[in-house]
Amino acid sequence: MTILPSSDRKYRRNPRTPLLSPQKYDDHEVGFNGASYSGAVFNLATTIVGAGIMALPAAVKQLGLVPGLIMIALGAILTESSIEMILRFSRASKSTTYSGVVGDAFGVAGRTILQVCIVVNNIGMLVVYMIIIGDVLSGTWSDGVKHLGLVEEWFGQHWWTTRFSLLLVTTLFVFAPLISFKRVDSLRYTSALSVGLAIVFVAITAGVAIVKMMDGSMKMPRMMPELVNQASFWKLFTTIPILVTAYICHHNIHPIENELRDPSQMKSIVRASLTLCSSLYIATSFFGFLLFGDHTLDDVLANFDGDLGIPYSSLLDDVVRVSYGIHLMLVFPIVFFSLRLNLDGLLFPYAIPISLDKRRFFSVTAVLMGLIFVGANFVPSIWDAFQFTGATAAISVGFIFPAAVALRDTHGIATKNDRLVSWVMIFLAVSSSTAAISSDIYSIFICEKGVGS
């Protein structure tokens, strides 16, 4: 038997059940011997490389190529620092969850706020995934132009090719089976396939850009941001939440570590995953912006619906959209996994682990899936969703909470470098979040004023 550490135990107290570590208990029941290094790398990389990669070329368009790529690299460095802090303070507090670490430092209030942020962030991300899948299958509108989806292109416009119908079919026959697994390591093969499909997308984008560059049909993109007025300056800050959201994986660090055969490998797993993902991000942003320039859409996947100016353009368009649509379908369950755990911990802090209660497991799963499905049919744009979750919950989960735990330092293990990095994280997080939210409000005000006049 493995007893829950004190920081987690007080939130899982139940007089009728032993205080077992939920993951260890499940593993013993099914004969699970622990997750492998490669499986953990794929699961963590899949958590990171979700929909964020699709919005990065648009973020680079706003920032300019040089500042944009620098910001992507900086995001990876800060993310590794924040995760390393979480892992060290987890061991010091003997916590097996991210919320347990925060609860050890800030009590019930801190733990609850973190869980709310994770729930908001993950719901926002999963809504984004479904929006992009809907764009791929049924098409989307941008600046008054209709971008056809794959199913519409192949079969024409019918009631069963509408966004609602296609997302409903995807939910029932793809998401429902995948989100029914009770152990994150069960998704290792789908995660490996997911990463492979993301690489296919990057390879095709790079290949098309290189071919067009060689035949001289491509213009060089802007190296620096284009500042024409005050509004364009403040709009630069709206890219920060996009960059932050692209690296958020903190909510799955502990579920993955808890299943490892050798938990001491987690630091290496984090570094390998971030190296892989940041490489994909830089390549996608560079070649995507190079290929589409100022015509890069908020969801770059929507750009792959017309003539790319090379042979077999239509076939490549379809391969790109099919591969990335399937990729997102396989990312969905691994993000949903931590969403369900944190919502359950928020609503039922004293109950037995959700994996041991079938009725609660399927009830929470069904309610969450219903909320995400409704959100995906009413949120107009992935940029809107990224702005909301990225400027609030994502920044809190990725930077503010890890930095706050290090500064609180209840176990006296924080170094001078930890404190310095923590203050930098908090300053960047708060300032960029404030600027992004202010910019959004300013844009809304200007639009309404323009419409009214």
UniProtKB/TrEMBL annotation:
Stretch list, region Disordered: 1-21
Domain of life: Eukaryota
Residues that span the membrane, as ranges: 40-60, 66-87, 108-132, 160-179, 191-211, 231-249, 269-292, 322-341, 361-379, 385-408, 420-445
Localization terms from the record: Membrane
Record's GO cellular component terms: organelle membrane
Species, as recorded: Juglans regia
Keywords: Amino-acid transport, Membrane, Transmembrane, Transmembrane helix, Transport
GO biological-process terms attached to the record: amino acid transport
Coiled-coil region: none
Keyword Transport assigned: yes
Primary subcellular site in the record, as a coarse category: membrane
Protein name per its UniProtKB record: Amino acid transporter transmembrane domain-containing protein
InterPro entries in the record: AA_transpt_TM
UniProt signal peptide: none
